[in-house]
Fold each of these.
Amino acid sequence: MAQVACLALRNGESARTDGVPVLTVAEFRDALIDRVQGGARLTALFGMPTGESRVRLIGVVAHTETGMIEICATEVEEEYPALTHDCPAAHWFEREIAEQWGVRPQGHPWLKPIRFHRSYRPGHDAWRRPAEAAIEPCVTDYFEVEGEEVHEVAVGPVHAGIIEPGHFRFQCHGENVYHLEISLGYQHRGVERAVPGGPTARTIHYMETLAGDTSIGHATCYCQAVESLAGSRVPARAQVIRAIALELERLANHTGDLGALAGDIGFLPTSSYCGRIRGDFLNMSALICGSRFGRGLIRPGGVAFDLDEARRQQFLERLRAARRDVTEAVELLWSTPSVMSRFQETGTVSRHRAIELGLVGVAARACGLERDIRREFPTGIYQFAHIPVSTADTGDVFARAFVRWLEIQRSLAFIDEQVRSLPASRTRDLLGPLAPSRITASLIEGWRGEICHVALTDDAGRLARYKIVDPSFHNWMGLAMALRDQQISDFPLCNKSFNLSYCGHDL
Amino acid sequence: MRFIGLCQPVLALMLAPLLRGVINKVKALFAGRCGPSVFQPYRDLAKLLGKGAVYSGTTTLVFRLAPLVGLSAVVVALALLPIGSVQAMLAFPGDIILFAYVLGLMRFFTVLGALDTGSSFEGMGASREVQFSALVEPVLMLSMATLARHSGSISFSGIYSSITFGVWMQAGPTLAMVSAALLVVCLAENSRIPVDDPNTHLELTMIHEVMVLDYSGPDLAFILYAAALKLWVFGALLVGLCMPLRTGWAMMDIAAFLVGMLLLAIVIGVIESMMARLRLLRVPQMLVGAGAIAIIALVLVLR
C-alpha cells in the first residue's frame, strides 16, 4: 500500500508550515496508523485552531531506523474518528485534544479530561459541560471493578512523602491489584497557552521550570527549536557544555532514583549514600552555572556560562570522586540478595505492551527497546560523540534500576571525555528573529526519556503554537499497566522505578 | 509479690525508649550519617505529650481507648517477666499464657482502633497485622512450650531461672533454635525490617505504622511508648535466653541483662542496615519457617 506522503524533517530542522500536507481525516488516520504499526513512534499529536470553527490536528511520528521525523495534518470541526483503537499510543493525546479544543474523538475507549481545565475554544466542550459549571481536578468517573470482595483504595492527591500531587485509584482484591487508574492535573499551569505570541524574555524561564528536575532537558529542547526557527547555529563549545549539563542532570536524577528505590525497600546504605552523591552531581552543575538545577545555563544561541580552566580541573576532580562513591554505593544493590528479590519480577511491563503504549526513555529501554534520541536522532555534540544505548530485557523494577546504573556509567565516561576536550570557541551567538510561517520538531533525550517540542511560527515570526510533550506524558500509562496483578504494597517501588513527573505532564 | 521483681517494669519504663534510640543510632552510623541522639525518642515523647489530640469525626470511643489499653496491656506483660534468676513481680504457673493473651489484647485494640477510622489504608494495615500475627503467635507459643518442657515449669520465672550455661552446654541446639525463632518473633512483633519498615512514609507498604496514622498528641505518645515497651518485652525474652548468666546476685544478673539488651538493640540495628525489607508475600514464608524451627526444637525436647 502506498503511504501518504508527509513532511519529513531531521531532528531540529525546520520547514515552511505550508510544506505540511493537510490530509483528509481518513488519510491522516491511515498515515499515522500505518507508520506506527510499521514501527515508527507517535511522538506528538496535537491541535491548533485555524479560523473560527476548525481545528487543525498535527501528528508527528519519529522513524527510529532512518532518523527522520514525519509531520502531517488534517482539519476537523467538532469530532473525528479516534485513532486510539488502532494506535493505543494516541490514547492520552486524544484525551488532551478533546480537553483543549473541544473536539470529540469518536469511539475513544476512555474519553476523560486529563488536566481538568476549560476548553481553549469557548463554546466548544467535548463533554458538553455548561460554561458556568465548576471544573474540579480529578472529579470525574473512574474505572470500577464490581464484586463482593473487591475493594477500592484511593491514594492522593496529598501524599505522605514530599512529592507532587496526583490521584491514584486502585481496584484491589485483597493485596492484589486488578487495575490502577491515574488521574493528574493538579499542577496544570497553562504553560502551552503562555508561550504563543513570544518568544519573550519569560519563555526560557517557563521552559526551565516545566519540570523542576528536567530544567536542562526542556531548556535545551526549547533552544534547539527556536534556534532552528531562527536559522542560527550554536558554537561548538556551547554544544559540548549543553551536553555535559544534560548528562549531569541525568547523573543526579538517576543516582537519586537508585537511592530512593533503596529507601523504599528499607535498604539504608545505598539510600543514604546516593542521596548525598546526588547532591555532589547537583553541585557540579552549580560549579558550571551557579544553579544546582542548571537554571540560567542554557540560553537560545548557546550557553550563558563557560567552564574556565581552574573550574575545569576542579570539575574533573569532583567527577572522579563522585564516580568512585556512586560505584560503591550502587554495586551494593546488585550484591544484596534481599534487594534483588524485591526488584526482580516486580512491576513487569512486557516488550509488546511497551511498544503498544509508546513508552520512552528508561522505562522503554528496560523492556529491551533501543530507544534513545541521543543515538537515533542525535543533535549537537551527540552527532560526533556516541553514547551506547543501555537496555535490559526483563521490564521489571530491576531492569529499570539497572538501566539507570548503566547510563550512569556511560554518562560519567562521556562527561569525562568531553570536559577534557572542550573545543575552544565562543559560547553564545545571539539569536536573530524567528523566521515566519515555519514549523520545527525538536527532540532531546532528557534523563526520563524523549522530550519533544514542536513549534510553529505565524506570518509575523511569532510563536503561533508551542507543543510540549514531556516523557511522563507517554509513560504514566506504562506505570498503570505495570501494576496489574501486582501487590498493592509494591506500588511505591514501581512508582519510584518509573519516577514520572506530575508537573511535566500537567504543564 | 516481690519488691525485687519491680526491677523489670521500672527499668523497662525508664529505658525502653533508649532501645529505639540505639537502633536508630546504629542505623545512622551504618549509613554514614551522625543520626539523632540516642535520647531523641524521649524528646519525641515529651513533645507529643505537650500537644493536643485531633480526632476524626468518624471515630468512636474504641479509637480513644486503644492507646490506653495497649499501654496497660504491655505493662502487665512486663510484670510477668523475670530478669535472669530474679523473679518477676507476678509469677504463677501458666503466666506464659496470660502473657500471650495480654499482648493479643493489645493487638486487638490497635486493630479495632485502626478499623474504627474507616480509612482504607488502616484497614489494609489491620488486615496485614492480623494475618501476620496469626502466624507469629504459634511460633511464640511453640518456643515457650519448648522451654517449659525443658525446664519443667510453666511460669516465666521458673523457665528463665533454669537456663544456665550448663543447660546451654547440654541442650545447645534446642536453645539456639528457640532463640532463632524468638528473634524472628521479636522482629515481626515490633514491625522491624525485614517484616516492616518503621521509618517508611509509604502508607501502602506499612503494617503497624499505618494502623496508627490517625493518632496524634498524647495518644500517639502512648502508642510510641507502648511500642518501645513491647520491643523491651520481646527483647527480654530473647536476652534472658541468650545471656544465661545466673550468678544469684540480683545486681550482677540485672547488669548482664542490661548489657544483653544493648547488644540486642545493636544487632537489630545491624540487621536493618544490612538487608532490605521482604516483599509482603514473602513475610508469611519467613514466619512459617520460624514456626518450623520452633517445632523441631519442641520435637527435640519431647523425644
Note: Residues 236-264 of chain A form the longest helix (29 residues).
Amino acid sequence: MTGADAIIKSLQKEGVEYVFGYPGVAICPFYNSILGSGIRTVLVRQEQNAAHEASGYARISGKVGVAVVTSGPGATNLITGIATAFADSIPLVCITGQVESTIMGSDGFQEADISGACESFVKYSYIVRNPQDIPRIVKEAFHIASTGRKGPVLIDIPHDVQMARIERFDYPETVNLRTYKPTVEGHAVQIRKVKQELKRCKRPLVCAGGGVHLSGACEGIRTFIEKYNIPIVTTMMGLGAVPTDHPLCFGMVGNNGRPYGNRAMKEADMVIMVGARVADRSIREPDLVMEDTVLAHIDVDPAEIGKNAGPTIPLVGDIEHIFREFNREDLQEDFSDWANTLAGYREDFYARLAEEKAEQTEKAGMIHPADFVRMLSRSMEDDAVYVADVGQNQLWSCQNVIMREGRFLTSGGMGTMGYAVPAALGAKLAAPDRQVVAVCGDGGFQMNMMELATICQYEVPVKIAVLRNNTLGLVRQHQHFAYKDRYSMVDLTGSPNLEKIAEAYSIPYLHIGRASEAEAVIGEFLAGDRTVLLEVEIDPDATV
Amino acid sequence: MKRIYSVLVENRAGVLCKVAGLFWRRCFNIDSLAVGETEDPRVSNMIIVSSGDQRTLEQIEKQLNKKLDVIKVKTFSERESINRELLLAKIRCSRSSRRDIIEICDIMDAKIVDMSKSLVTIQMCDTPERVQILLDALKGNSIVEIARTGTLALTRCGDNK
C-alpha cells in the first residue's frame, strides 16, 4: 500500500462521498489511487471553486467537505476558498500535493509554502513527513474540522510521501489530542444565571448567528422562543433559524438589516447572543448597544465571547446542547407584550415601505430586485436552498428572502464574490432532492462562470439567476453616496451575452426584462429539476 | 498594562511561527519573547511579555488557548513572578574609561566576562528594569553590540498553584 492509498482508505473510513478538486503532478498519486474507490470526484474549472463546492456540500450535508488540489498555483488558488470557509466556520479538509520532500525549501517548480500561507485562516494544518502518520493525521483533521468551532484543516503531502510504501494501515478509532478538547456541555451555573436573568428582565431578545445552523440548534431555539414568546433577530449567517414569516421573527440586524430588528436590539434589556461573532456589520458599536443591556453570550468558541462585546453572562458550549438544557424546565414567563410592541414597529415599517414604493415609478417597467427576491423565494419549494452571492444581490436577498424550512447560504464573513454558483453546485450534490437556486449579480457571476462546465459535466441541476445591471452595483452605490457619483472601476461593459453563454453550455436560458413577465418566467425557471440560467434586467440606479 | 504569558507548547517545527504570527495578525504587541525546552523535551515554554488594555490582554490568552499546538497558558503580572533577563554587551574601552566601566559593573552587579585591548564584554542577569539601568549608565561609552534574551519568568513560589 502506498501513502496515496492510505489517504484514500482514510477518506473512505470517514465516509467521504465527494472530492472536489483539480489535478497536477504533485497530487497525481492521490488521483491515481482514488480510481475505483467509490469516492466520487468533481473536476472543478479553477481551484478556488473546489473549496466553495466543498463548502456548499458541507453546509447542506452537515458533513466535512473535501477539496484536493495540486501544489504551487493549485494550492494558492485554493486559498480564497479556504479563507471564505474559515470566516464562516465551515468544516473542510483540504489536501494539497507538495513537491518532493528533498526539494522542499529550495523553491522547486510549483512549490509554495501553502501551510505557511494559510496559517491565519485554517483551524490547523499538517505537513506530512512520514507516510506512516497518514491515518492518524486524516483522522485528526476530520475531528478538528467538524468539532468545536468548525473550520478548514489543511493537509500538505509531498509527492514522495504519497508514493512511499507503508507497512500497515491502522485507522485509529479515537483521537487523542491533549491540546484540543472543545467544551460541549454548557456550565450549569451559567445556564442557571441566564434563566435567572430571563425571569428578571422585561424585554429579552434572541440574536441568532451562523453557529445556530452549524450546531443544528434551530429546533431547540424555536421551542425556546415559542415557550415564552421571546422575539428573535438574526445576523446574515443566522437567517432561516426560524421561518421568516414567524410572528416572533424580526429579521436581520446590522447596517444592512431591517430598522425594526435594530430597534429591537436597542430597546431590549436582555440580549441572548447565540453563535454570533458580534462583528462590525451586524453590531457596529457593541459597547454602546449593550450599555444597559444584560448580554448572555453563547458560543462554542470561548475566544468569541468578550472579543467585541463584554458579556454579562458568558456561556461556552454547543448551542444545541445548551438549548436542550434551557428547554428542560418551564419558567412562568411570557413576553408577548414586548413581542407585540416590536410587531407594531414591523407593521409601521412595511406600511411606510409600501407608501414609498407607490411613489416610485419603476424605471422602464423593470422589476425591482427586492420584488424579484420575494417573488422567487415565495415560489420556491419549502425546503429549498437559496444561495446568494455577494454585493447588492446578497443584501436584497437577505432582506427580502422568504424562508420556510429551507436554507440560506452566502459568504457572510469574507464576502467572497463568485461564491454562489460553486456553493450551489456543492449543495445540490449534498441534497439532490432539494431545489437549489443561486442568485448572483453580473459581476460575481463572471468571477466563477467557468463552473457552468462542471455543472454540465456532472449534470447537477442547479438554477442560476443573474441580476444584470452592467455594473458592480454595491461599489457603485457606495460611490454614489460616499463619493458623490464619481464612479470608478464599476462599469462592466464588455460582459458577454448571457443567452449565448447559456447556449454555449447547452443550458436553457430565460430572461426577465419587464416586471410584468416576472411571475410567469419565475414559474418556468423553478419548474422541473434542471439547470436553468435566468437573466434578470435591473436598474443600475437601484440601491439597497 | 503589562502582562506575562507563560505558554507551554508542543515542541514541533513551525510552532514558534504560528504563535508569533497570531500576535502579528491580531495586532497584539510582543514586548519580549523567549523560548526554551522544558523538563519534558516534547514541550517548550514560551515566555511572552505583552501590553495592552484589559480586553486585548484577555483576548491574547483566549486566542493562545485556541491554538492547537498550545498545551497550557499561564498568565501573571510582573509582581506575581520572578523575572530575569540576560544581557551581553560588548563595549569599546580605552585605558581611561576602563575604571569607569568597572565601577558601573560593580554598582550594578554585572560581570566582565571577556576583554581585549580595546573591548570588554559585560554580562548581567537581572530584572529587565535593572538591565535597562545598566544600559543607560553605559550610554556614555560606545556600545559595539548587545544581545538580550528577553524576559524569562516563573510565578513566585508562594503563589504557585
Note: Residues 4 and 22 of chain B are 16 Å apart (CA to CA).
Amino acid sequence: MREPIISFKDYTYHYRAQAEPTIYHINLEIFKGERIIIVGPSGCGKSTLAHCLNGLNPFSYPGESTGTLTICGVDAAKSSIFELSQSVGTVLQDTDGQFIGMTVLEDIAFSMENDCVHKEEMIRRTYEEAGKVSLVEKLEAAPHELSGGQKQRVSMAGVMINKVPVLLFDEPLANLDPAAGRDAIELIDHLQKDGEKTVIIIEHRLEDAMHMGADRIILMENGRVISDSAPEELFLSDRLIKAGIREPLYLTALKYAGIHLTGEMHVERMQDLMLEENHKEQIRKWFAERKAKEPAKEKPEVLRVDGICFGYTPEKENLTDISFSVREGEMVSIVGKNGAGKSTMAKLLCGFEKPDKGNLYYEGEDMSGDTIKERAAHIGYVMQNPNQMISKPMIFEEVAMSLTLQKLPEEEIKQRVYDTLKICGLYEFRNWPVSALSYGQKKRVTIASILVANPKILILDEPTAGQDFRHYTEIMEFLRELNEKGITVLMITHDMHLMLEYTERSLVFADGRKIADTTPQALFSDPELLKRASLKETSLYELAKQCDLPPESYIRAFIEYDREVRA
Amino acid sequence: MSATLSYIKKDSPIHRLTGSTKFIFFLIWSVAAMITYDTRVLVTMFLMGVIFFVMSGLKWKDIRFAVLFMTWLIVINLVALYAFAPEQGVGIYGTRHEIVHLFWRYSIVAEEFFYLFNFMMKYLAVIPVALLFILATNPSEFAASLNKIGVSYKVGYSVAIALRYIPDVQRDFHEISQAQQARGIDLSKKDKLTDRLKNSAAILFPLVLSSLQRIEVISNAMELRGFGKNKKRTWIVERPFKKCDYVAILVAVLMLAVSAGFMVINGGRYFNPFV
C-alpha cells in the first residue's frame, strides 16, 4: 500500500468572514508522483482547497478547519505557511503579480535568499534551475522584457529551487495564449517526469490541461468533491456536463454523431483516440446531414481603418499599415500573440492614441480629428478587468456616470439608465452597491455603463478571461443579444472557443501587422497561420482529418449544431 | 523623457560599487556638505560630483526633469531667504559692502549674495551624488545595503518592491484614465476645481482597488516563498567589498575631514573673504 503524500480526512474549512464553510467533508488522498487536475465551476471551493494545501489558509485568510489535512507527514493545522512551502510549491495565476524580483535571477533566487543560503550556492542553483526552464540567457532580464509564458517559467523555477515534492498550479493557463499554454503543459509534464514530482493543476480549460494526460481528475461542486476518478471514467460519464464544465470538444463531437463512448476508444486525449471505421462513418453521416446556413446579407460598412501606422516611440513602430473594414452588426474577434498590436489597435479606434499615418472612418466620415469624448459617442470600450472601470459605489451611479457628466436632465438620465439596466438584466439590482455583485455581474455593469451612451460599436478586451463555462456562456450570450439588437462587437481575445462560437470573422495580428482577415473556421484549419497567431489546433480539426472531412466545413457544422443544442 | 527617477542599468565604475558603498558615501558626503559654508570646499565637492556623474555614463536626459525641478526649488528657497532676511550675510561676515540700493530694505550687498551663493552650493554639492545614488543603485541592492547598516530587511524590501511596481501602477493609471475619459471624465483645466477633484476620484477609486488586488497577490506570492521566515536573509545581488569600494569610502571620509579641517582653520563654518 502506497503512502499518500497529501491526505484530507473529513476536512472542512470555514473562512472567518463567511457565514458558511467553503469546503465540506473533503476526503482525498494524493500519492507521490501523481498528476491531478482539479476542475469545478467558479465558487466550487477549488481555490480554497489549494489555499489549504499551501498554507495561505489559514495563515493569510483566517478561518477554522475541522477534520485533518496531512501534507508530507505534517499536520497542516499545526504547521506554518513557511513549513508548508517546503513541501508544496505554488505557481499562481497572475504571471505579473508573483514576479517579485527586479530580474529573473533575483526572482528565481528569492526563496533561497529567505532561507539565508550562501551567495555562491544561490548562483549555482539559480543557473541550474534556469537551465531546466531554458531561461539562462534571460537571467538579467526585467519582467517587462519577458512574455507571459516566460514569466510563468520563472515562477516555476522559483518554486522548484526549493526541491519541493509537490507542485501546485493555480489556473496556469488563464493568462497565456493557447500556444504558450500548450508549451506550459508540456514543460510541466517534462519537469514532473524529470524530478518525480507530484503535480496538482487547478484549471478551467480541461481539454488543454489534459494535453499531456493526468492520473486523476477531481471534480468539485458547492464545496464538495463530487467525482474523483481516472479521466477516462469521468469522460465516459455525464458528471462534467451536469456540473456545467465544458468537456473536450472531440467528445462532444462524437456524442453528437451518436457514437457510444467506451473504454476501448481511449477517450482521455485526442492523440490517443481510437476510432473504428464505423465510428468514422457515423461522423461522416452526421456531417452529410448538416446543411450550411445561408450567408447573411451584407450590411453597410460602419468602420473603416485605412493604412494605419503607429508607434508609441519614434524608434519602434507598433502597428504597420493596418487596413480593414467592419460592417454593421458584425461580431469580430481580434486575435494574436501578446504584443502583436491588438490592444494598440483598440486604443487607436477609441482615440486614446493618435495614428502616425492613415485614417479612420466611422460611417464613411473621417474621425481622425475627433476627441476621445466624441469618439465615445460611437465607439465604446470595455476594459478586461471590471475593477479598473468601476468608480462609483452604487450601480445606478456607475451606469449613469457618463450621462451625469454631460449634465443631462435628471429625468432623462433615469430613463436611459433604467432602459440600459433592463437590457443588461440588471434592473432588479438598480439600487444595489456594486460590491455586492459577482465578477460576471460587475462585467455587465461595466458594459451597461458604456452602453448607456448608445454607442454603435462595442470593443471588449478579453471579455471572458478567467471565467468558467457558465459565466463564459452568460457573458457571451448577453453580448450576442446586444449584437442581434444591431450593435457591432469587436473583441480582443485568446479564447479559441469564443472565436469559433461567437464570431464570424477573425482579424489576425502578428508583430504589428494584420496577417489575416478570415473566418475562425478557416483560421483553425490553417496550421501555419495558427502558429503565427500563437493559437493551436482544436481537436475538431484533428477529428475531421481522421474522418477525411474538410476541416473548415466540419468545424462550422459542429459549432452551428452545438449552438442549437445548447440554446 | 523620464519624469520619475529610477534605477538605470549600466556598466560603469560607479555602478560597480556595491549598494552599501554608495549609500555610505552618500551619507558621509551629505554630512560634509551640511557642516560647512566654505565656498572652496563646496565648489570642490560640486566639481567632484560632476566628475562622478560623468564617470557613471548616465545621460543629461536621464536627469533633466529632476534637475529642472530641483533648480526650481532652490530658486524659490533663495528668493524666500532673501525676501525675509536681506541682511543675513552682513550679520554673518561682520562687514557691509553695498553695491546698489534697490528699494525699501532691499539692497544688493556683497556679503548677502556671497552667503546665498554658498547656500546654493550646499545643494549643488550634494545633488549629483544623490542623483547618482538613486539612478545607479539597483533597488534590491539598496534594500540589501539598508539591511547591512541595521535596518530591518522587511523595510528595505518594501522600498525595493515599491520601486519595482511603480511602472505597473503608472501603466494602470494611464489605462484607467483613458477609459474614464472615454466616459466623459474631463481632466483638462476647463472645469471648476471641485469638478476636477471629483473627476480625479473617478480614476483614483479604480486605481486604488486594482492596486490593493495587486498587493494581495504580491504579498501572497512572497509569503509562499518564505519571505519573513527568518530574522535575516541573504541577497543574491549583494557583492563583496572590493578595493574600489574602500577607495570610494576613503574619498568620502577625506572630504569630511577636509570639510571639518577648514572649519578649524576658519574658526567657524564660514569662509570669510571680506576681512
Note: Chain B has a mean pLDDT of 87.
